[in-house]
């Protein structure tokens, strides 16, 4: 009996030792820095989840092939453990726990969407795990006092407020009437708050304020109101599916509106899906290939665009570009920290001040990037050939805004 107890005690101690060793060294295995990510590969966010994963993978391959990450006089390569969060916040939080507690991950890349980032952030914060995220823009993420959350993208309230300013400018400085249709997720509601602030700031008037249906498959009721009320601007935010639904039904119902401003146009590949029906849509974007930011890994936006197309056979939406930028931020932080200590890496992330092909990145105390403006592009077509051209801010514009949008009877 005594011998059995000794054997059991030895086995228990050995198991504990192995467990501790695995957890302790899982962040760096040999010459690999292991990052973790719960990502939407199925569910309603799956298309943008794939864009996010493609952006991460492209950056990992590029960094690894160009010398990797240098820490403590040694060279390391990135590797990512992925799990499918199924576009479900509860599942995302569970997977974050699994990555940290079971897989031993000590550095995280964010999921797709604000809602899923909100689900994961309390978990990474609890364990003191630095997370660089590229697709959670809800400003409420940056008011919780998180110390380990860093977002490379501009916050959601800045996505479409500039569209209201543009409409007022085109109206001779006079207030405009605004119709709105928003998904009920954290991101879209923050976009809505930014639009409402712009309406108040310009003395404009909200005439329609509708909720998009949960499945984002029908906004005919809202569009019928738009036809009746005739607002100066229609603003829509419903991720990829919402953008596609809006363009399809606006064309079907022949809805005339002087300005249509939306989120997620490029991720939805509007012109590819709907051709000239998508023409004149004004789209908020975190990034565009014509912007002139530069770095040593992707050179500039045009080069990134060409390289991405070679790898994945489609043009990169901004969700992919910002995801690639997240890896550049992690590389920079590891090398400045010259350590894999989580607190030292966290402090290095907080001190980030760099330019990437995607834009300038500098974090405020809340973890949001305060050094990169949003851009607006407009879908412009020459025959059947449609392109996205930047129209605002003026400093980065490659084309002049077409306003008002021609009526359907004149197209």
**Percentage of residues in DSSP E strands:** 15-25%
On the 0 to 100 scale, the average pLDDT is 91
**What is the fold named in CATH at topology level of the largest domain?**
Rossmann fold
Classified by CATH, the class of the largest domain is Alpha Beta
Percentage of residues assigned to helices = 40-55%
CATH homology group of the largest domain: Response regulator
How many structural units, i.e. domains? 2
Give the number of DSSP strands: 16
The helix/strand class is alpha/beta
* Count of runs of 4 or more consecutive helical residues: 13
Low-confidence stretches are: 1-26
CATH architectural grouping of the largest domain: 3-Layer(aba) Sandwich
Radius of gyration: 23 Å
Overall 3D shape: globular
Order of H and E elements: HEEHEEHEHEEHEHEHEHEHHEHHHEEEE
How would the blueprint of this fold be written?
Elements: H1 2-25, E1 28-29, E2 32-39, H2 46-65, E3 69-71, E4 74-84, H3 89-102, E5 108-109, H4 114-127, E6 131-133, E7 149-151, H5 161-170, E8 177-182, H6 186-202, E9 205-211, H7 220-229, E10 233-237, H8 239-253, E11 259-262, H9 265-268, H10 270-274, E12 282-285, H11 301-312, H12 318-337, H13 342-350, E13 353-356, E14 359-362, E15 375-382, E16 385-392
Parallel strand pairs: 2-4, 5-6, 6-7, 8-9, 8-10, 10-11, 11-12
Antiparallel strand pairs: 1-2, 3-4, 12-15, 13-14, 15-16
């Amino acid at each position: 009996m005594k011998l059995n107890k000794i054997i059991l005690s030895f086995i228990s101690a050995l198991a504990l030792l192995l467990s501790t060793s695995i957890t302790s060294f899982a962040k760096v295995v040999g010459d690999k820095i292991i990052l973790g990510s719960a990502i939407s590969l199925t569910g309603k966010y799956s298309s943008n989840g794939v864009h996010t994963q493609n952006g991460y993978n492209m950056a990992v391959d590029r960094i690894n092939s160009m010398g990797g990450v240098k820490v403590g006089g040694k060279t390391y390569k990135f590797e990512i453990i992925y799990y499918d969060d199924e576009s479900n916040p509860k599942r995302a939080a569970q997977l974050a726990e699994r990555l940290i507690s079971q897989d031993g991950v000590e550095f995280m890349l964010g999921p797709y969407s604000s809602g899923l980032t909100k689900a994961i952030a309390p978990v990474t914060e609890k364990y003191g795990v630095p997370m660089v995220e590229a697709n959670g823009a809800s400003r409420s993420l940056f008011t919780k006092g998180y110390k380990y959350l860093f977002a490379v993208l501009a916050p959601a309230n800045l996505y479409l407020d500039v569209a209201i300013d543009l409409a007022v400018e085109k109206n001779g400085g006079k207030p405009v009437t605004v119709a709105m249709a928003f998904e009920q997720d954290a991101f879209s509601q923050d976009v809505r708050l930014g639009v409402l602030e712009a309406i108040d700031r310009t003395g404009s008037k909200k005439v329609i304020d509708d909720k998009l249906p949960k499945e984002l498959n029908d906004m005919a009721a809202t569009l019928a109101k738009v036809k009746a009320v005739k607002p100066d601007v229609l603003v829509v935010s419903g991720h990829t599916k919402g953008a596609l639904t809006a363009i399809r039904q606006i064309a079907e119902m022949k809805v005339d509106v002087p300005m249509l401003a939306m989120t997620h146009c490029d991720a939805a590949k509007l012109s590819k899906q709907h051709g000239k029906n998508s023409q004149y849509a004004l789209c908020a974007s975190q990034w565009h290939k014509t912007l002139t930011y530069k770095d040593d890994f992707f050179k500039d936006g045009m080069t990134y665009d060409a390289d991405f197309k070679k790898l994945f056979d489609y043009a990169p939406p901004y969700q992919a570009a910002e995801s690639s930028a997240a890896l550049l931020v992690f590389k920079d932080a590891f090398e400045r920290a010259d350590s894999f200590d989580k607190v030292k890496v966290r402090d290095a992330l907080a001190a980030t001040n760099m330019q990437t092909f995607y834009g300038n990145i500098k974090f405020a105390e809340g973890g949001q990037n305060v050094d990169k403006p949003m851009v607006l592009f407009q879908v412009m077509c020459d025959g059947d050939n449609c392109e996205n051209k930047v129209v605002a801010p003026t400093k980065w514009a490659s084309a002049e805004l077409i306003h008002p949008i021609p009526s359907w009877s004149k197209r």
